[in-house]
């Protein structure tokens, strides 16, 4: 039953159904598919009315740069959640990548490729361990990644002796603070990783299997999909994305910090869920998640612009996140 | 009959002897080592790590004192169970740097019922808890806020728009430092607080908040942050926007990173809360407590100092 529903809601299938339906149904299908996007547009319009400073190129660029880190992490988290898994380790992996990469990024010591390669390798390794433990060890991903969350943070503290590692080279700092043709580097990476992740999920065997595992793992196994192998690959990819975010965040603050990325895993999960990813698996898209991250960014930025008190900001953020998902899920049920 | 009497005498003797040696063994143990349990909130904090270093240093310098340090990982309930473990081990005194000052009461009460003196360091608990502890070692948070804003007011000539960057909401240092800031602003009719927001003590959050403030178009003459990391974040955002020269940025703590920014003239003011002084003061006070000495004053204040470009070298050498 469940797998049927999931297949029916798969974006590739929706198109066919829309063609055959009447205009009323067409509209609700449009909303079910683009609902969160419409909510996002609504928020942008609302913020533009409320704050004259909101709608200008610099501020919008500012918002996208601010969410590009969470956004990149959220893409990996989306894939993991599609398989009915979860990844709680993203924030801690960011911290571990941050301190280790920073220690190799002092000016005049190693070429730029060294801290980048080491950072990415740590992310890949952490993701691979997450995937292997949960797939081969048959341990719930919640527990496996909870373990990684604790251990990686501990390792980051151990490695850095609990202190930030500063004095980073200019070439490394470019990763977080540089611009190409006036566009901040993190935004470029966010968009590129968005395109790559979207293609991976929508156009490749890897993507098809990811949805299949989330739709019905048992069925996927019977169909001959090497579920364990793909799960490990998915978690590894999520680890890689965390590492990319960690490297850029380290460059942005010009220091490797063991306290970096606290609560990022939850923000990333929130972005994925706001973007329409279902925690029960099988449903979710990368563009949706990117919009989800943007919604979080617009909220943070808009509330700061409007000079809303910090206490109210927290209350409003919580309420708006739940409201956005509620609105979206209601529309999905109606269709 | 005679044999029985002799035997009973022997037993009495043996018993009293064993009592004596037993007492000796206990007293001896106390004399050659004072064991102090230090329940610390989180090892992952740069400023606190210097406080820990000072404690470890005291431990190394004094053979008769042993400091056992544990990390509560910012979890108040974990800290409570760590204090309970110390009590079960039978330490001579406990130093607590509370994760949450409002959650420290049960720890102190349990220590009191076990007759183990408690020294609280760095984060001041509420009054009802203060009555039950041996001493509080720290600096008056509000003083950091007033000193910091007084210097900023002087630099601004007593007038201008001020933005305050708060630490984690609800933390005592956030509340008190901000309160100190506001007291000074009140005394200067030309000054106005135009923005206030939290950057959760973090540099990355400080960048983000400052970016949003810059985008808001509000005229800001000074950014006064509850700690240095957030102030550095504000500086990075202002620098990227080419506006650092128009804005006075102030922090609190005087961390080594911040001192470099002071030296470069980017961070105009910082306030030094002496972590080594607090760490050392806490252990010294705890040792006094373990020895049963009486204190005249429950508050052991470690003074703040103002850091500006003129005296920054003195603090840079302090960290070395």
TrEMBL record, chain A:
Residue spans crossing the bilayer: 34-55, 67-100, 112-133, 139-159, 180-201, 234-254, 266-299, 311-327
What would you give as a GO molecular function for this chain, any one?
Answer: transmembrane transporter activity
Compartment(s): Cell membrane
What's its membrane topology?
A: Multi-pass membrane protein
Question: Record's CDD domains?
Answer: TM_PBP1_transp_AraH_like
GO annotations of cellular component type: plasma membrane
Task: Name any one Pfam family assigned in the record.
Answer: BPD_transp_2
**What InterPro entries does this protein's entry cite?**
ABC_transp_permease
Q: Does the keyword Lipid metabolism apply?
A: no
Its domain of life? Bacteria
Q: Does the keyword Cell inner membrane apply?
A: yes
Q: Where is it mainly found? A: membrane
Q: Which UniProt keywords apply?
A: Cell inner membrane, Cell membrane, Membrane, Transmembrane, Transmembrane helix, Transport
Protein name, UniProt field: Inositol transport system permease protein
Automatic annotation (TrEMBL), chain B:
Give an example GO cellular component term for this record: cell envelope
Give the domain of life. Answer: Bacteria
Where in the sequence is the signal peptide annotated?
A: 1-27
Sample GO molecular function, one term: carbohydrate binding
The record places domain Periplasmic binding protein at 36-294
Q: Report the main location listed first in the record.
A: other
Name its cellular compartments.
Answer: Cell envelope
Give the stretches traversing the membrane. none
Record family assignment = Belongs to the bacterial solute-binding protein 2 family.
Descriptive protein name: Inositol transport system substrate-binding protein
Q: Which organism is it from?
A: Lihuaxuella thermophila
